[in-house]
Amino acid sequence: MAARYLNDTEIAKAQRDFELKKAAYDMEVNTKKAESDLAYNLQAAKTRQRIKEEQMQVKVIERTQDIQVQEQEILRKERELEATVRRPAEAEKYRLEKLAEANRNRVIMEAEAEAEAIRLKGEAEAFAIEAKAKAEAEQMAKKADAFREYKDAAMVDMFLETLPKLAAEISAPLSQCKKVTMVSSGKNEMGASKLTGEVMDIISKVPHVVSKLTGVDITHSMKLAQAAM
C-alpha cells in the first residue's frame, strides 16, 4: 500500500509539475504569440501608414503634374492667343492708325493745296481786275484827252462807234417776233421794207435826241469833221 501510495504521490507530483510546466509554456507561448501579433499588427499599421503616405505622395505628385500640365496649357493658350489674336489685332490697329494718319495728311495736303490754288487764283483774278481797271482807266484817260483835243471829232467818233450797237438794240425786239401781220391801204410801203423804214426812221432821230439830252449837235460836228478832212 505504501508503495502504491508513494507511486501515486509521485505520479501526482509529476502530473502537477507537468501542469505547471505546461502552464508556464502555454503562458510563454501566448506571450510570444501576443508579442508576435502585436508586432505584426504594429508592422501592418506601419505598412498601411507607409502605403497611405506613399499614396498621398503619389497623389501630390499627380496633383503637381496636373498643375504643371495646366500651367503649360495656360502658357500654350496664352502663346496661341498672342499669336492669333493680340499680334494680329495690334498689327491691324497699327495699320489702321497709319492709314488714318496717311488719310489725315492727305486731307491736310489737299486742303493746303486747295487753299494755295484759291490764293493763287485770287491773286491772278485780282491782278487781272487790276490790269483791266488800269487798262480801262488808261483808255478812259486817252478818250478824255482825245475829247479835250478833238472835241467834236471825238464826239462824232464815239457816236459812229455806238451807232451800230444802238441800231442792234432798236431792232432786237423784232428778232423775237415769230410772226408779224401788217395792214396797209396799198399806198405806202409794206412788209420788210416797211419795218426797215421804221427802224431807219428811229435811228435818224438819234442825233436830235442826243442834241436835246447833251447839247451836242452830232450832225454839225460831223460836218465840221468832214470839213477838217
Could you characterize the architecture of this molecule?
- GO terms for molecular function: protease binding.
- InterPro entries: Flotillin_C, Flotillin_fam.
- Keywords: Coiled coil.
- This protein is mainly alpha-helical and 229 residues long.
- It is 90% helix and 0% strand.
- The protein has five helices and no strands.
- It has helices at residues 2-150, 152-175, 192-204, 206-214, 218-228.
- It is rod-shaped and about 220 Å long.
- The termini are far apart.
Sum this structure up briefly.
Helix content is 90%, strand content 0%.
Tags for this entry?
single chain, 229 residues
* Largest sheet entry: none
Question: Could you say which overall geometry the principal axes of the C-alpha atoms support?
Answer: rod-shaped
How many β-strand stretches? 0
Q: Uncertain spans, ≥5 residues at pLDDT below 50?
A: none
- What order do the SSEs take from the amino end to the carboxyl end, as H and E? HHHHH
Structural class: mainly alpha
Percent in helix: over 70%
Assembly category? single chain
Give me the Rg, rounded. Answer: 71 Å
Mean of the pLDDT scores? Answer: 76
GO molecular function: protease binding
Protein name: Flotillin-1 like protein
InterPro entries: Flotillin_C, Flotillin_fam
Pfam families: Flot
How does the SSE layout of this entry go?
Elements: H1 2-150, H2 152-175, H3 192-204, H4 206-214, H5 218-228
Helix pairs in contact: 1-2, 2-5
